[in-house]
């Protein structure tokens, strides 16, 4: 998979194909990726941004992907049979979440291998998501609901971390979309965060800002 503004290195497919040929037990393989700005200048690596040294990168990484996606969609090479089995992309998901949802389902069905080498370029345009964060956050909530519905045992196994993530999404909605939502909606979102994690200071601080009319 390759989005229109991203690139693969000339040897990317060859190196990933070799892994799949040598390791028949894995269903897919992915690599590190260069991060670039809108001009194509390299600004870092995915492995640096997402702290790969702290993550489980190979084998069954379903639990690792549960709390956030760290794999750009053009980083993996996936066997066609694996895509057919999990059903591919679900186009009902909002922006940025159809990739994550597909990789999450893939990781639940097939183990993966990792190449510790950047084999592509991920172009990031500054401020593109920040201009309108609401669709991204709504997509995250949609993904969360799907995971709770389809993988309840996985969520239960990491319920504390899951609650923290879910609560944080509601708080971010109240903080970042003040110009797009009325006060009562922001108040409702914060109350949902508090219901999930009652003993957290961040939600109460945001609630105070809403009540006194501060953005």
Describe this structure in words.
By secondary structure, the protein is an alpha+beta fold. The chain has 10 helices and 5 strands; from the N terminus they run E-H-E-E-H-H-E-H-H-E-H-H-H-H-H. It has helices at 12-22, 46-49, 62-66, 80-86, 97-109, 134-150, 152-157, 159-176, 183-196, 201-211; strands spanning 7-8, 28-36, 42-45, 76-78, 112-123. Strands 1, 2, 3, 4 and 5 form a 5-stranded mixed β-sheet that branches. Helix 8 packs antiparallel against helix 9. The N and C termini lie far apart (39 Å).
SSE layout:
Layout: E1 7-8, H1 12-22, E2 28-36, E3 42-45, H2 46-49, H3 62-66, E4 76-78, H4 80-86, H5 97-109, E5 112-123, H6 134-150, H7 152-157, H8 159-176, H9 183-196, H10 201-211
